[in-house]
Amino acid sequence: MDCRKPLSLIILAALLLASPLVRGQSAPETEYGPVKGSLVIVGGNLRDPAIYDRFIELAGGKDAKLIVVPTAGGNKTSDGQPRLYKEEEIIAPWIKRGLTNVKMLHTHDPKIADTEEFVKDLRAAAAVWFNGGRQWNIVDSYAGTLTYTEFHKVLERGGVIGGTSAGATIQGDYLVRGAVAGPDIVMAPEPNHQKAFCFLRRTAIDQHINARSRWDDLVPVI
């Protein structure tokens, strides 16, 4: 997937309960969105059950295979140890919504993310959901790996990718607020935290615009 064209569109996915949906098109080329599949981009603080319902519908229903990625929540603890997530806690909100085939996907180590064993469940997934947190954690774990490739393949086979807050920003092209030093830095100084996963090409996706009065923050990006 070619993401090298100039950035020409800014998406403000950031109302308190923002829920813009970008659908893939059947045309062989699209200007911004995926050729196939769908994206659900939520600005943050997701509460509206209709958004969840629409995501599940796009996935193919409650028996569809869903992969939940909590990685934005952090790769390391305050003392530098790998952060551990309990799968039953991560998938619990989706189980409560009636989904029957949900798995967690997480690693702090890109070498693990680049293995066949790690992506085996992802290869059968109809949907991927990125939880919120700090988007650079997602980049550190998966950029340039087999997992990154398989995320894109979910869309290529007509699936859906969604996410809220950091899980929204990671779907764009330029990675807004990717600086490790803090989320108030809109344009990261470190080059490896300037690129998102390019599900929605030629865009930058910010979050929490209304809730955190961020309306002027994208001026440098533009």
Would you kindly provide a written description of the structure presented here, covering whatever features stand out?
With 222 residues, this protein is of the alpha/beta class. 23% of the residues lie in helices and 14% in strands. The protein has helices at 49-59, 87-96, 110-113, 116-119, 135-142, 146-156, 166-169, and strands at 9-12, 21-23, 38-42, 66-69, 102-104, 127-130, 160-164, 203-206. Strand 4, helix 2 and strand 5 (102-104) form a beta-alpha-beta unit.
CATH fold title of one domain? Rossmann fold
Helix content: 10-25%
What's the order of the H and E elements? EEEHEHEHHEHHEHE
The proportion of strand residues reads 5-15%
Distance between the termini: 23 Å
Q: Helix- and strand-based class?
A: alpha/beta
**Beta strands, count:** 8
Rg to the nearest angstrom? Answer: 16 Å
CATH architecture of one domain: 3-Layer(aba) Sandwich
Low-confidence stretches: 8-21
Q: Could you name the CATH class of one domain?
A: Alpha Beta
Q: Strand count, sense and closure of the main sheet?
A: 6 strands, mixed
- CATH homology superfamily of one domain: Class I glutamine amidotransferase (GATase) domain
Q: Name the shape in a single word.
A: globular
- Average predicted local confidence, pLDDT: 89
